[in-house]
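User: Please predict the structure of the protein below. I'd like the answer in structure-token form so I can feed it into my own downstream comparison script.

Assistant: Understood. Taking the following sequence of 117 residues as input:
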Amino acid sequence: MWGAISGPCTLDGACVQSPNYPQYYSNSQACTIEINAANAAPIVVEYFNVESYFDYLLVDGWKTFSGRRRRPSGFTPSSSIFWSSDFSVTRRGWRLCEPDRRLLEEAPAPDEPAFLI
């Protein structure tokens, strides 16, 4: 689902990550990750720890994720993800992955029972 990346964020297999992950990201960084909408799926968060309020991910131009607890797990992006860090405190950052497509294909539809009787 990850498309073109502009800036210092990186693609690692089925995951995208903040600059320098798993080490601390730097001050005053920004990058944009385009989303291949045809392959969009709920985000799996492997790690997320950024400075609250001042360092953030902006998904689809309106949904903001910041801090340690406010993470984009389960959110399905449709257009882009923008990363921004301010001029002071830094942390380890984030690593977001695509879900295992086999699990998505095997999941029951919402109106199907998840178990057999």
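That's the full token string. The longest helix spans residues 101-106.
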